[in-house]
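Quick question, first post here. What does this chain look like in 3D?
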Amino acid sequence: MIGVFGGTFDPVHNGHLRVVQALVRTLPFDELRMLPCGEPAHRAPPQASAEDRVAMLRLAIAGMSSIVIDEREVQRNGPSYMVDTLTSMREELGDTPLVLIIGWDAFVGLPTWHRWPQILELAHLLVVQRPGTTTPPCREVEALLQQCQVDEVSALKTAPAGCILLHPVDALEVSSTNVRESIIAKEDVGDLLPVAVLAYIKEHNLYQ
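> Answer (accepted):
Ran it through. Tokens below.
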């Protein structure tokens, strides 16, 4: 079973790492791929280059044997549509269960994604929820939950795609935007970033 955790990682921070480390500890992933976005379709472009964001990711996951970086989106021209990424992964993986990891807010916004109905044809969805999540799903997402939600992790291993599992997670309240703003304000971000990532940011004068 392969997990996919996407994001701009601009920069990668301890909130990202807490989630992926918790998932590889508690769920039966053979591998978890961190997928830096190349050209986001629904938001402003990243401030750091793809090369810098990948370099920071490498530093952040050093020594985490079951977590790898998948660079296909930063190597592809044009908008980074998840449906295209999952299609290319599916072609490589055959019938291996593929699990796309997204937050609740991204999940309730799924109908805004490019060719979104195809997502569950290509992968399962693992929706990570922080305690107190309150954003209600729209009708399309509610219908999707009724059709596809499962209660057991084991269900994700019985088919290549098509299931939705809601999974609580103790997430750190931090975002890459917060980190960048704190760096600009010259505030201490030592508790928000891995030591090696902070050193890289300082060395390369990122987010100044």
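The beta strands are 2-7, 31-36, 67-69, 98-103, 124-129, 149-150, 164-168.
DSSP finds eight helices and seven strands in the chain.
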